[in-house]
Amino acid sequence: MEVINSIGRRKAAVARVILNDGKGNITINNRVLKEYFPNPQLQYVVEQPLNVLEAAGKYDIKVNLDGGGVKGQAEALRLGIARALVKLNPENKPALKASGFLTRDPREVERKKPGQPKARKKFQFSKR
How large is the angle between the packed helices 40-52 and 70-88, nearest 10 degrees? Predict the structure, then answer.
């Protein structure tokens, strides 16, 4: 099997995924998955595409992750892994698409406007 590269993004996070045959090791920035994401919920989010296809112990995944927060990074990684699995075998696409793992979540932080404390919040109005 050749090495498969893919990319996943969410908010400000970018995950570059390298997938090849192996024993199911997931390495993120030269650290093990459980060390990088100690929260079990985030570990579950990352492993969702593999669990849907029942391919949890089949591939080694090496990831370069940067930007964003932990939740955005986990979801960017989920998208990257799902895209890599589709590149590996196009028959995986319907199952992953039905689960919603191939959709790039487009929501981004709205910019702060001048004369306001945040994007939509206003300073207190004083009539007199």
Answer: 10
pTM greater than 0.85: yes
Measured at the alpha carbon of residue 5, what is the angle toward residues 47 and 36, in degrees to the nearest 5? 40
* Contact criterion met (CB below 8 Å) for 82 and 98: no
CATH of 4-99, one of 3.30.230.10, 3.10.129.10, 1.10.10.10, 3.40.50.12780: 3.30.230.10
Closest among 10, 7, 8 to 107, alpha carbons compared: 10
Q: What is the pLDDT of residues 68-113, one digit of tens each?
A: 999 999 999 999 999 999 999 999 999 999 999 999 999 999 999 9
Residues 104, 50, 54, 88, CA torsion sign? positive
Neighbouring C-beta atoms of residue 37, cutoff 10 Å = 23
